[in-house]
From TrEMBL:
NCBIfam families: ant_ant_sig. PANTHER family: ANTI-SIGMA FACTOR ANTAGONIST TM_1081-RELATED, ANTI-SIGMA FACTOR ANTAGONIST TM_1081-RELATED-RELATED. It comes from the Bacteria. GO terms for molecular function: anti-sigma factor antagonist activity. Residues 1-109 form the STAS domain. The lineage of its organism: Bacteria, Pseudomonadati, Bacteroidota, Cytophagia, Cytophagales. Signal peptide: none annotated. This is Anti-sigma factor antagonist. Pfam families: STAS. Belongs to the anti-sigma-factor antagonist family. It comes from Hymenobacter ginkgonis. Gene3D superfamilies: STAS domain (3.30.750.24).
Length: 109
């Protein structure tokens, strides 16, 4: 999986491309652990090219969620494919995390 960071003003967009599983979760975890991440008001996760997410991938987001919330940084997912969204929904994570259909909506959350 490839993670591309796109900083812009007070928002950081992370574009996920490929499969987020145990082996690639380390790449995402490294991005979310960067100290400057907490200087942004929002972290947008573009899931358009995310074709699969495992429990390890979900665990990365869950492990960073509280730290982001404590720092008033909003984590917003958008462009999520239905099969990836279903994983979030089955586990009840859709009620814990902001998941919206488009980048326009993500920017207004």
């Amino acid at each position: 999986m490839k993670v591309t960071a796109q900083p812009a003003a007070d928002t950081l967009t992370l574009v996920l491309d490929g499969e987020l599983d145990a082996s690639s979760a380390v790449v995402l975890d490294t991005e979310l652990n960067k100290p400057d991440l907490l200087t942004y008001r929002k972290v947008l996760i573009d899931c358009q090219k995310l074709s699969y997410i495992s429990s390890a991938g979900l665990g990365v987001f869950i492990s960073h969620l509280q730290r982001l919330q404590d720092s008033d940084v909003k984590l917003v997912f958008y462009n999520m494919q239905e099969k990836v969204f279903n994983v979030f929904e089955i586990l009840g994570l859709d009620s814990l995390m902001n998941i919206v259909p488009t980048v326009e909506e993500a920017q207004t959350v």
